[in-house]
């Protein structure tokens, strides 16, 4: 005996049979990014549109759309200019994000490290005092080196070719070497002095910015 299916079952199976192939095709296109009937489309600098069932040569380096057999865009291949613009934008966004994070971290450090402006000023003065002490030591070393340089110049003046006496003996190697070393050391200490001055300026500027920001965070009046 053949069993007859209810009418509502028959309608359900019919709809299922119609919908399933289309859904399967749509899923296959979404998963693979293209289908057997996919083709490519791009527009060049002159505005002319190019098509092809594979990437047209004139589309190389241009934004290219990949369309399915129904003419629906399923993905876009970035061109060189678009890729560079995206990378530039992403780098700028990453830099801005990093700067925001650094600013927030700085604010947290200020609030967690200091109880008041006096604490910041105290640390600033300690840093400057240390640098000032180093500066004075360097100045003394420079004064000693200049005194040695003057003494050596007096000794060297008795020897050829610096002496006006044609019968003067030639300059001894040890004096020449000592003068060269003195001049080099003097140059090193002078550069150290410049760096120390620059570092003091940087410390003052950094702590001034910290004090200003701390007052902003605490709602204190700026002076």
UniProtKB/TrEMBL annotation:
<dbReference type="InterPro" id="IPR025392">
    <property type="entry name" value="DUF4124"/>
</dbReference>
<dbReference type="Pfam" id="PF13511">
    <property type="entry name" value="DUF4124"/>
</dbReference>
<feature type="coiled-coil region">
    <location>
        <begin position="128"/>
        <end position="155"/>
    </location>
</feature>
<feature type="coiled-coil region">
    <location>
        <begin position="77"/>
        <end position="104"/>
    </location>
</feature>
<protein>
    <recommendedName>
        <fullName>DUF4124 domain-containing protein</fullName>
    </recommendedName>
</protein>
<keyword id="KW-0175">Coiled coil</keyword>
<feature type="domain" description="DUF4124">
    <location>
        <begin position="35"/>
        <end position="60"/>
    </location>
</feature>
